[in-house]
Amino acid sequence: MAEITLRVNGVERSLSLDTRVSLLDLLREHLGLTGSKKGCDHGQCGACTVLIDGRRANACLALAVACDGLEITTVEGLADGEELHPLQAAFVECDAFQCGYCTPGQLCSAAGMLREPGPSAVTGDLTEDPALTAEEIRERMSGNLCRCGAYVNIVAAVHRVAAERAREVAGR
Asked: Which GO molecular function annotations are given, in alphabetical order (predicted)?
């Protein structure tokens, strides 16, 4: 057993738990935050994606004890009270989900991805920070699978938010 303290969606939580407990199981079974889904439990589908100190990670692969002292953001923590996160609103507007099982992981992954600068495997010029085209978004979101095949609308939703943020930055 280990004593850990982490900040989950802005709330400090202290727990005593087995050192083998994954972050996903801590969130779902110990804290009742069931937004992050247990898809494959092997880090292959991305349904459990959360943000750990602002960076996206598969919660099924992270040990809870390794997150001691860190900030964890789940899909439940993206919205600001009753106001949806821009990505959540765009997912609704673009109909970017069908069954919805992958949506929490897709949302957290997209939120983290939008903050990650630099090139990807499809970037032509590796010395530049490329615009987030549909091709870039597909590459950067490739760790999040959707069994329903809602990719076209997921990419459209993420692209909409990326374009809005780029306009805001340019307007400053």
From this structure: 2 iron, 2 sulfur cluster binding; metal ion binding; oxidoreductase activity, acting on the aldehyde or oxo group of donors
Q: How many independent structural domains does the chain possess?
A: 2
CA–CA separation, 172 vs 163, rounded Å? Answer: 15
Euclidean distance between CA atoms 18 and 33, whole angstroms: 18
Sequence-ordered list of residues with C-beta below 8 angstroms from that of 118, at least 6 positions apart, any chain: 129
Minimal CA–CA distance to 106: which of 136, 78, 67?
78
Predicted TM-score (pTM) of the model is: 0.94
User: Residues with Cβ < 8 Å from 117, sequence gap 6 or more?
Assistant: 129
- Are residues 91 and 70 located together in one domain of the fold? no
Chain centre to alpha carbon of residue 106: 6
User: How big is the CA angle at 37 (ends 107 and 46), to the nearest 5 degrees?
Assistant: 55
Per-residue pLDDT of the chain (172 residues; tens, 9 = 90+): 999 999 999 999 999 999 999 999 999 999 999 999 999 999 999 999 999 999 999 999 999 999 999 999 999 999 999 999 999 999 999 999 999 999 999 999 999 999 998 999 999 998 888 889 999 999 999 999 999 999 999 999 999 999 999 888 887 6
Last residue of one domain, picked from the residues 55, 77, 99: 77
Contact yes or no for 109/144 (Cβ under 8 A):
yes
